[in-house]
Amino acid sequence: MKAYLFLLLPTLFLSSVGMAPLHAQQAVSLQQQMGKAEFDRAGLNKLSPTELQHLQQWLALHASDLAATIPASEETSATAAAAKSPGPFAHKPKAAKVKRNDTITSRIAGEFHGWQHGTTLTLQNGQRWRVKDDSSLTVPESLTSPVVFVKPGFLGSWLLRVQGYNTSARVEPAN
Predict the structure, then answer these.
(1) Helix axes 2-17, 49-67, angle to 10 degrees
(2) pTM of the entire predicted model
(3) Domain residue spans in the chain?
(4) Distances, alpha carbon 127 to alpha carbons 23, 64, 139, 148, in Å
(5) Cross-strand partners of 149
(6) Which of 6, 163, 26 is nearest to 69 (CA)?
(7) For the stretch 159-171, what's the b/e string if a residue is b when 16 or more beta carbons lie within 10 angstroms of its beta carbon?
(8) 38 Cβ partners below 8 Å, 6+ apart?
(9) Backbone dihedral angles phi then psi of residue 131, each to the nearest 5 degrees
(10) What are the pLDDT digits (tens) for 71-90?
(11) 122 and 106 in contact (C-beta within 8 Å)?
(12) CA 144: distance to chain centroid?
């Protein structure tokens, strides 16, 4: 929980203050962004005002670096996960190289019977992926929450594979 919160703090902070002028950014407190309950649960209410101010300044300077360390599997939107690693030949802005796990590992939410063109698969992490090629997979018996891997392909495409099967499908984010 603490590791997740450590990664979430900078994302929340930047998303709300990223476009505000500097003097307005300083007026926004971390507690306002997180809400009192989350702020207290993270133990940030134990910090002195000076310590809290220092933390907010540090987060403002380093939040983009921290946000880049969130594995694609933890994104709740397939679009956000796909944006983290658009593939080897897609346009990528120049930035410092950050080692991250581009393969998304999750499970199908509920029963899995297979796929065909147009099937939308919902993962337990909240991501939804739509099959966009003509591949198909029919499993002999329905599977309950099988493990799936979604990894970047060429030219910005994504490939989804169910553990235990050699067939993969080219997919696109559906949420």
Answers:
(1) 90
(2) 0.50
(3) 2-67, 72-173
(4) 37, 22, 22, 12
(5) 105, 161
(6) 6
(7) bbbbeeeeebbeb
(8) 5
(9) -75, 125
(10) 666 776 777 777 665 555 55
(11) no
(12) 24
Tokens coding 39:
């702020």
- Residue (of 66, 82, 58) closest to 5 by Cα position: 66
| More confident: 97 or 78 | 78
**HSE of 2 in the Cβ direction (CA atoms, 13 Å)?**
2
Q: Which of 30-39, 41-50, 70-79, 150-159 has the lowest mean pLDDT?
A: 70-79
Condensed to tens digits (0 to 9), the pLDDT of residues 11-29 reads 555 454 444 444 334 435 7
Mean pLDDT computed over 126-141:
94
pLDDT at 102 over 70: yes
Q: Which of 113, 156, 108, 116 is nearest to 133 (CA)?
A: 116
The dihedral region occupied by 121, where left means phi > 0, alpha psi between -120 and 50, and beta the remainder, is: beta
DSSP single-letter state for residue 40: H
Is 159 in a helix, a strand, or coil?
strand
Q: What is the pLDDT of residue 157?
A: 87
**Which residues, 6 or more positions from 168, have their beta carbon under 8 angstroms from its beta carbon?**
135, 159, 160, 161
Give which of 156, 162, 154, 83 is closest to 121, Cα–Cα. 162
Residue the block writes with tokens 């969130």: 70
